[in-house]
From TrEMBL:
SMART domains, per the entry: Brix
Name this polypeptide is given: Ribosome production factor 1
One Pfam family cited in the UniProt record for this chain: Brix
Organism field: Cepphus grylle
Cross-referenced SUPFAM superfamilies: Class II aaRS ABD-related (SSF52954)
Leader peptide range in chain numbering: none
Transmembrane segments: none
Gene: Rpf1
Amino acid sequence: AGDGSGPVGAAAEDGGPPAPERVLFPPTFSVSEIKNKQRRHFMFLRWKQQQRKEKLAAKKKRRKEREALGDKAPPKAVPKTIENQRVYDETTVDPNDEEVAFDEATDEFAPYFNRQTVPKILITTSDRPRGRTVRFCEQLSTVIPNSHVYYRRGLALKRIIPQCIARDFTDLIVINEDRKIPNGLVLSHLPDGPTAHFRMSSVRLRKEIKRRGKEPTEHVPEVILNNFTTRLGHSVGRMFASLFPHDPQFIGRQVATFHNQRDYIFFRFHRYIFKSEKKVGIQELGPRFTLKLRSLQKGTFDSKFGEYEWIHKRREMDTSRRKFHL
């Protein structure tokens, strides 16, 4: 055949060399069926590259069509994401709800928000911390003003908490580690609780962050809390807010952000820089980490007899990807 679709060795119409063989995969063929690992990886990369090209071409085509239609172009479709398909939670907080306002005025954090107390934080670790955990605690103390680091050795938390209360500490932060890596954070509000236990992951110290800014200054940072919408999330957000003094010093241009997305709390510490009247640049100062709430306990830390307000139970609570608790 002259179109090159014949068998191997078929000559071209002009009597030239044989036409190359056309490789035709069956309709149900999958790249995963290729036995050779290197060839399979190569074919997969080619397939991904082709997919990106087709997606980019379709995007350019849609943009040209919208430019041609001008004002008559239909509105852009809203992409479906897990966030905008979230299952409605009946505990979502309404800012104008009188019950929520009453709870905020009488809860354990009311003295802080009424400016009756000044935050004073004690940061401690698990027994005999390793170097990475020690450096993380030191860097965390530069983010939270009026915080003090204490490395405990064999001293139980039940003995530390009364000493903290006697010395007017308002919060206790415990950084736990496993295999020399920080993997947990316990935040206890003093003197009456509550106590939150978080799983910690993705810890990055300052030297591990690319394009980071200079060392943070001693100015009080601004605090941003994003997407803490339910009653549980509202309580967790108030816990984080009560770690920082009331009046930020804007001259320092430093911002501590707790961003909740799909029940993962991402912490970032930035400095913003005014490039012009309309443009603002940001520099990440570090450290950064991610938290996942495991439990919220009434009162101060008590692992045996404590009363829990909320406990994360994976098999019961994580049945839907569109169901979030914070």
